[in-house]
Design brief:
transcription regulation; mainly alpha; chromatin binding; repressor; SAM; SAM domain-containing protein; DNA polymerase, domain 1; two-stranded antiparallel ribbon; 2 strands
């Protein structure tokens, strides 16, 4: 019986992998891309390329604030607030 690969193709042709570590401070840019897509595929999924372009890894993700997300990543207020909500949940999680 074949096993499923650890990654699955994403709509943009890149592989998205679940982060190996639950600790976001150790995440790579691709781990962050997976997290953003998984957190809210409809609202945040279309913006994942920005995280690659701006080299947002786990440490950078934890430092993001809504004003930075809107100014530098160009997200509108709604998606920026949704991302901040998911980042706050991530910070509160025990890893």
């Amino acid at each position: 019986m074949p096993t499923r690969p650890a990654s699955s193709p994403s709509p943009d042709g890149q592989d998205a992998r679940r982060p190996r570590s639950r600790n976001p401070s150790t995440w790579t840019v691709e781990d962050v891309v997976w997290f953003v897509k998984d957190a809210d595929p409809q609202a945040l999924g279309p913006h994942v390329e920005l995280f690659r372009k701006h080299e947002i890894d786990g440490n950078a993700l934890l430092l993001l604030k809504s004003d930075m997300i809107m100014k530098y990543l160009g997200l509108k207020l709604g998606p920026a607030l949704k991302l901040c909500y998911h980042i706050d949940k991530l910070k509160q999680a025990k890893f």
